[in-house]
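Regression test case RT-17, inverse folding.

Input:
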């Protein structure tokens, strides 16, 4: 009977160990091609047809700020952008945001990711990289790109984008103001990443294991010695 009581105690201890002990870092990669400069400036820095690619990483457990129509997730932990042969990694991730808009005015769903650069070297014109944004939008009736303003853990389906193709904006700034290079976003894909331990969950796990070990020691002490 004592053994049964000990086993019940052990089961109770093990039950407090969380089934999910990892917070997930998720990475989306993207590709695109420059098609225009919308502010009427020069194309010396980024010629038409220039290939664009990169990635951004965010924490899946980030809490959004907003409501049922729109939410902002300051979730980015890393990002990189390659324009032609130049790669920009000096990203101010604290300003990076993923925005979700669901059924705004009954006609718009939007997925937007943006971040700014900090301390990148100048382009040939003297301008420096300022900001990158990517958009996937659905102007349906009703739109069905998103089902809520929850943080998407998989890329939005390009097939559901209407009116405008998915697109990006690469903005540079300099003495003569900002230049905005835009083009079609040709892909947005999920990249496999390893989960990393969440600190609170890890502490709970080790506490649970310590209690479980103590319960096992108690079971050993309660065993009746075999008669000889």
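Golden output:
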């Amino acid at each position: 009977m004592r053994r049964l009581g000990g086993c019940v105690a052990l089961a109770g201890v093990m039950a407090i160990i969380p089934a999910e002990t990892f917070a997930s870092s998720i990475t989306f990669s993207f590709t695109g091609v420059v098609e225009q400069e919308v502010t009427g400036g020069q194309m010396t820095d980024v010629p038409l047809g220039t290939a664009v690619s990169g990635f951004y990483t965010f924490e899946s457990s980030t809490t959004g700020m907003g409501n049922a129509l729109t939410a902002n997730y300051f979730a980015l932990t890393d990002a990189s952008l390659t324009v032609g042969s130049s790669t920009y990694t000096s990203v101010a991730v604290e300003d990076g945001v993923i925005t979700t808009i669901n059924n705004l005015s009954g006609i718009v769903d939007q997925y937007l990711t943006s971040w700014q650069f900090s301390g990148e070297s100048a382009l040939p014109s003297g301008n420096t990289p300022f900001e990158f944004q990517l958009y996937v939008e659905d102007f349906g009736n009703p739109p069905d790109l998103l089902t809520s303003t929850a943080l998407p853990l998989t890329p939005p389906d390009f097939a559901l984008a209407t009116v405008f193709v998915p697109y990006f904006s690469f903005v540079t700034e300099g003495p003569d103001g900002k230049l905005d290079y835009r083009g079609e976003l040709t892909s947005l894909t999920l990249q496999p990443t390893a989960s990393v331990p969440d600190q609170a969950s890890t502490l709970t796990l080790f506490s649970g294991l310590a209690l479980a070990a103590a319960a096992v020691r108690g079971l050993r002490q309660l065993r009746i010695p075999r008669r000889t």
